[in-house]
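Recap from last week: sequence in, structure out.
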Amino acid sequence: MEHILGEDWTIIPAGGSTGAAYYAQSNQKKLFLKRNSSPFLAVLSAQGIVPKLVWTKRLENGDVVTAQQWLDGKALNIEEMQHPKVAKLLSKIHHSSELLDMLLRIEKTTIVPDQMLVRVKQFVQGNKFARHSLTIYKAIKYLEKRILDVYYDQQVVCHCDLNHHNWMLSNNGELYLIDWDNARVGDPAMDIGRILQSYIPKQEWSQWLEHYGIENSRYLMQRMHWYLIIDEIIGYVWSESRYKTKEADIHLNELNQLLHQINDWNL
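Predicted structure tokens:
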């Protein structure tokens, strides 16, 4: 990375699972660098969803390096995820035709329920613990039962990794959603469900959805829970296959909670 900026820049790894992100500093100048970030970063920057894109450079080996404005700030904590700003920014993302057009050009495919169900069944069949789990069996049966009830034709750009560490609040009070490597085109209920289930007290779901701009409904709840179940099954199998027992247990407990909610709410 040093040869891109020059000798007067100090570059240090920014952490993360991919090892592709760096902080760069020279005197009073600061940048956030990343190798091979999402190709539609420029659109995200133009709409104020991520910190400003400063430049993009292609290396001799084909890698693309992007430089973004480095803002002082912090990730949201669990309580701050309940702020209306989160709902409003997610709604802005989901209603952006520019983002949707760009991601469709890149991805060319959308997430649809029948393909997701096939994938999750393959995951389960490939793991002996999942194959013999009663909870997983019940969850798969629910997915099969409800698959025709969860189709939704208004596809949007979904972030698909909405944990609170990816929401950044600058010292100037600007909210950003970062780390778009997992973004896909699909049902907005995938993103909405993750935030509601993980961060919002159930008695406040309708109020949060008002901030987002829609009303609560049985149809939305069915779609949300369907995709949440998919996520937890995949998370369980992924953790078990890597011998991460504690993480697997967390996913299984979440799955049981979702199945109880479905039963209690008659979804």
